[in-house]
Amino acid sequence: MKKYVSILAVTVLLAGCDWNVLQGKNGNSTSNGEQPASQADQSSGQKPSDPDLTLEAAHFNEIVEVKGKKEIANPDNMLVLVNKIYGLPGDYEPEDLVRPKVAFAFGDQDIEKSYLRKEAANALEQMFQAAAKDGIQLYASSGYRSYGRQQALFENEIVQAGEEKASEVVAIPGNSEHQTGLAMDITSESVQFALSEEFGDMEEGQWLKNNAHLYGFILRYPKGKENITGFSYEPWHFRYVGKKASEVIFKHNWTLEEYFDHVSKM
Ligand SMILES: [Zn+2]
Q1: What is the CATH number for 92?
Q2: Is residue 95 among the annotated active site residues?
Q3: Which domain holds residue 260?
Q4: How far is the CA of 63 from the centre of ligand 1 (A)?
Q5: Which terminal residue of the chain has fewer beta carbons within 10 Å of its beta carbon, N or C?
Q6: pLDDT, average across residues 76-89
């Protein structure tokens, strides 16, 4: 009898464990790229993990609180998650910015917005070459943007549209993905080189939507996911995340926020 009771106690204890794990997983879905270490340990101990959904710890945001704001302490991470919640340090500038050899909407001018981080620039060149082979002529429009430049844009928008409206249209300095040097706005002659929603309906926008993941890019602000990304639909804005993540994100039709909801640390 004594033996029976102790087996029962162990069973109850295990059931309690599983219940806690489930509670933890469901209760901590935070769309943020951060992950409590304990949660990662629990999920990896539970079942063999899907290689698509495991990531090195270095690819998760490390967040520090600076003046009440959540600031990213590892901004060089290729999978850095920058949005309205997580911002970059004001003095962050990538060290490996280069000018990709692609056509630009503004011609050959050597200006800040033509730059991208090296790995993203190489991938952009490959993507533009592949598009050209399919008869699609793409033009890069805006890549890296410094904190100072974002500040100038934001202040200009406040003058134009007022403070409340400004933060809906222009990212607050530090919270623009363009400061990572991993995002490029892309356009075409068919929309007069504008960054407009109609680009998404053009063959150039369609080609990018269907093929960008093959080169490590994702459509960062898709239609219908505005409440998750915090941004309006932007068919022109592509973000480099590397091929492993871009394939998974494309396959599941996720945003970068949703991707981080599903992956766990290796
Ligand atoms: Zn953009």
Answers
A1: 3.30.1380.10
A2: no
A3: 50-265
A4: 23
A5: N
A6: 97
